[in-house]
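[Solved] Which block belongs to which protein?

Original post:
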Amino acid sequence: MTANVFQNVLARHDPHCEYYTSLLRRLASRPVQWYTTSFDWNLALTFWEQFKGAGVDEACQDAYWGLLNQVKAYPLERSVWELSGELQIGNFCDALRLATAIDQAVDVIVTQEPQQFARTVVDSYRAQVDGYFYITLPTICAETGREVNNHIGVFSVGAFLLNLDNIGRLPLVMQLPRSESLRIESLQMIVSDESEATIFLKGCADRITVTARGRTPFEAIQRAIDQAVDEWYDMPIRQLVRFWIRPSTLTGADSPVEMVVGVECGDLNFESSACSGNCIRAAADAYVKVINSICEHLKLKVRDKEI
């Protein structure tokens, strides 16, 4: 856990402060053994001492210390310093955090800024879209002497709480999990009284460009994606039943938002979410995730093309 998990709860002027207080309570209530670096521990203490006089109330204090008292601090050993220089992370402190996580064999890092640990463009994209990603690091097994892959997850606070029960079963490589899956490669949107969406979709062995119009941007997106779905699959009729933005604090115009989409297909309900700094793209990605879930659940195969 990094120190920035604690800091937002101290911004008493922020109308979302109660939300951050709730996050700390939820983290503290989970059956997790928490660790941090020694300098993150000192930062969390400094945050408290510096800002506790700025109107911090009892609820904030209880949440702050309720979690911090559960956290064990790791000292910075020489091996950690040496390893940090090999990790290809530009920020010195984040390199030390990752090196400590590797040295102590933790499962995941929980932070407000998972993108700071991204070492590739793919990692950065996954942090924005899903709120988490896995770092794969080759290591030598002490027992066999063979090279094995060590995986450490990097999660935003929200993604950690959302996926806690599935950590260990989440896909380590965040790419198309199955050859049958759909993926958006590009999306162009014209927004006016009648919106138009042009989407370039990649399927199992084919690509397609689809264009559709709708009264709203999302209706145009849904119609465009459904064109491709109906061409590739014999899928039952689908109906949008839920479409909303998960509550979060926006720190700027490009802050990621999480869009949640629920669809009824036959007698079943499916729901997925996606994060992006572009809410239209997040909605499109979430809808594609729903379609992939339906395909997986119904074991749908791509329709053979007519010759």
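(Second protein starts here: sequence line, then its structure tokens.)
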Amino acid sequence: MNTPTKFFRYFALHTTPRKVFYDMKKSFFQKTYNLNINLIILILLLLLLKLALLLLENQLGNIEIESLQSSISFVQDKLNFTAYFVQSLTLTLTSILVLSICTELFQRFTKDSILNYFKSIYQTIRLRQFLKQDEMSESIISIDNQTTVTKFNPILKNFNHAISSCTVDIRQDTLSVFIKYPRTQQAQKLLRDMEGHVKEEISGQNPNYYFSSSIREGNKLWYIGTRR
């Protein structure tokens, strides 16, 4: 390779905007946020189910009809077995949840700040609320304008499903916002129209970070911030 070619290759590699080389991968927090939320909901439901099973078993134990004792004992055994299975599943899911959270907290403690973990959770919730669209719309269809019909909007449902995966990960020196692109063209257009508002929202929440323009990679939309 001659000298001019080497020079131009070096120049191209070192003057390309940095965002091209940014590693657009989800952090551990972004990968596990929805998982942790779903685990918490499932654990609470299992606890309620176990409580209901125990209450039902106790109620059956209060029945004193001799002719039904064998049937009641059989049902109580089945309820006991189900309650034990529910308890085991609850403990397993709780262990997974605790392991996931502890792993994240350890990473934050050693490489970042635990406070940023809670900031990330708060801003993720806030951004989802900001992006969420009302899926129901009202329209008046009667001649006398007296009848109002509420209709379901499938475009907004698709949009809301996509943005339910968005996350904000705050670090000491960087901040990354991940938003999943919707599947349908109409929902994608809605998100494109909101991109400027999204940047304004996250910039307002994080004035100490400078944000680049949004970067789309496949079905993922990223906003990357660096500390000023």
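Accepted answer:
You had them paired correctly. Confirming on the second one: The CA atoms of residues 141 and 147 lie 6 Å apart.
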